Amino acid sequence: MNITFVVAMMAEAQPFIDNFGVKEVPDFFDPLPSKLYHARLGRATDLYVVLNGQQHGSDLIGCESASVATQAAIQKLHPDLVINSGTCGAFKSNGADIARVYLGNAVMFHDRRVPGDDEWGTQALGNYDVWSGTEALAKKLDLPMGKVTTGSSLDMQPCDLQIIKENKGELKDMEGAAVAFVCSLYHVPVLLVKSVTDLCDSSAETYDEFKRNLARASEELCKVNVRIIEELLQ
Fold first, then answer.
1. pLDDT at residue 203, rounded to an integer
2. pTM for the predicted model, two decimal places
3. Catalytic pick among 12, 59, 175, 209
4. 3-state DSSP call for residue 157?
């Protein structure tokens, strides 16, 4: 089995990398900035962690970088399952708490507005399928589920919030739908694992809250990812 994690930021991936002792494979995606880490689990499972990489001295975040990394990973690694692991915003009004980890039971874009045509509008929102085993896994591990909505900005404009509410979005990120879009093109199942760094309906500044909670959310994300791998190996 080939399990491939696609992760935007090193801070999100580092606890997981340390836990499984995956080793970097230098220049695997050259000339792309994406980074590859690999470990062999038992006799039949390859575990890969793919990072978007860096540019201008910082981690590449957002839809474009996630799409590039996911396509490169699928073409070169041929995964059986892609897991998009990362942090997200969520809504206190929906019962979310900082560092709570969710599995995505649906995924879409919330900032691609194409009014006036139902077909183009439907394509813009996406609403991509997630791995068919998601619900059973969530029940087995006693994890909450939520709909992931993706946009290219950390902040949230009123028009974004309107689309999120209209589509019952619960977890707001910057990569999930982009990863799922590429997986849909290649018919590769995708699982979304998201840990909350900030509450979209709180009075705190999003970036400040994100920075303050990133380390804690990433640690909790790692714990869940470890449990997921253990379950997949059974």
1. 81
2. 0.94
3. 12
4. coil
